[in-house]
Write a structure and sequence with these properties.
- There is one protein chain.
- Helix content is 22%, strand content 8%.
- It is an alpha+beta fold and 130 residues long.
- Strands 1-2 form a two-stranded parallel sheet.
- Helix 1 links the parallel strand 1 and strand 2.
- The C terminus is likely disordered.
């Protein structure tokens, strides 16, 4: 299992995997947590889906949103999951925030462990990431 990116959701997934006893490799261009350190509170985070397409993940629509199973977060490439703001593709209106991405970690963990998927996510908030 590899986690690409050590922003807020990447770190949250790493903690959940460790607690579940699942080994993983965490890859980040800088220091773990550097994105949290570099950006001030209320900074809007976004992820470009351009690089995930290299892995063969299908992108759709003007937003170039990765195609994935909403229950598991797994893409069309077996074993490749998306989480956080990357799941929304290229956002222009910031509808996917870190606050409503925590359910992504629970869905990925359930898919990896064979547990039932968690209940649906709460409604999206109107607040930007913090």
């Amino acid at each position: 299992m590899a986690i690409i990116g050590a922003g807020p959701i990447g770190i949250e997934l790493a903690v959940a995997l460790r607690q579940a006893g699942i080994d993983y490799l965490h890859l980040e261009a800088g220091q773990i947590g550097q994105t949290i350190y570099d950006f001030p509170p209320q900074m809007r985070f976004f992820s470009s889906p351009r690089r995930i397409a290299i892995a063969g993940v299908r992108l759709e629509g003007a937003e170039r949103r990765p195609v994935f199973d909403e229950r598991t977060m797994q893409t069309n490439v077996p074993g490749v999951f998306v989480a956080g703001t990357l799941s929304a593709g290229t956002q222009t209106d910031y509808g996917t925030f870190l606050e409503n991405c925590h359910i992504h970690v629970a869905r990925i963990l359930a898919a990896l462990t064979g547990a039932p998927p968690p209940p649906e996510a709460p409604p999206k908030t109107a607040q930007p990431e913090s």
